[in-house]
Amino acid sequence: MADFPATEGWSRWPAPAKLNLFLRITGRRADGYHTLQTVFRLLDWGDGIHLRSREDGVIARVGAGAEGVSEVDDLMVRAAKILQEESNGHQGADIGIEKKIPMGGGFGGGSSDAATVLVVLDRLWNLNLGIDRLAALGLQLGADVPVFVHGHNAWAEGVGDELTAVDLPPAWYVVASPGVHSATAALFQAPDLTRNAAPAKIAGFLSGSSPSGAVLDNAFEPVLRRREPAVEALFAQLARIGRPRLTGSGSGCFVEFADRESAEAALASLPPGLHAWLARGADRSPLLDAMEGFNAGASPSG
Hints:
Helix 2 (109-124) packs across helix 3. The model is unreliable at 209-214 (pLDDT under 50). By secondary structure, the chain is an alpha+beta fold. The chain is 30% helix and 25% strand. The protein has helices at residues 75-87, 109-124, 131-139, 145-150, 184-188, 202-206, 221-227, 229-238, 260-269, 286-295; strands at residues 11-28, 34-54, 59-61, 92-98, 154-157, 162-165, 172-176, 245-246, 253-257, 276-280.
């Protein structure tokens, strides 16, 4: 892992993971994109992004990025270049990452990394483009980027970009990954994917009896469980501690608990060797807290 000493101008910023508390596909647009409904829950756990401004206009990734992702394809690098082009700016940046969020797990790692770069460089470069404009730029990189730019738990519709902020009750999660990279594009083309689910209502979700509501289905879950034995095996293990759910179109799973003690006890009861960990549902993105602290003169610590 590359070293990013604060004394050399580096700053560290959080890029939180997310969970999809449910996901329904409600139709398909004329352009081929699917319309969906979901609730994004931000977590207090995720990647750490290191940034350092440059005056020569060069945008460079320092150290290793996500495994198997070239610098030219890296969403962090692409985010910085889009921001640079949008602002007709001549500033550059060095970008590094502490990668913790599993790739292909549906936890939004690449999207969150890109969002953090957009939000922070907008501030470091003194662009002040505004959140809505940054979110629009993020949408060019992926449908999940805007929710991380806005930084709030949200009900999402459209292709996932039409966001309504929601307040969610406190919750803790046992989160797990089977180590399988799920290909989103292939899943969307699966013949057994349900694409015409009845639309849900925000009020119905929020009034459910469980901590996060009653609408808990994920359209990709039955498809992925049939296709990936590792996902099916993970569901079987997690079913011992509660109701496992899939997040997004990835292979990652989670079980929700109302308090930390229950989640810790459940995690401790799982068999050794399972890639599982504990995460708290955030009221809002840790990136917002870091930005507010930075604007108030505190050093960001991610």
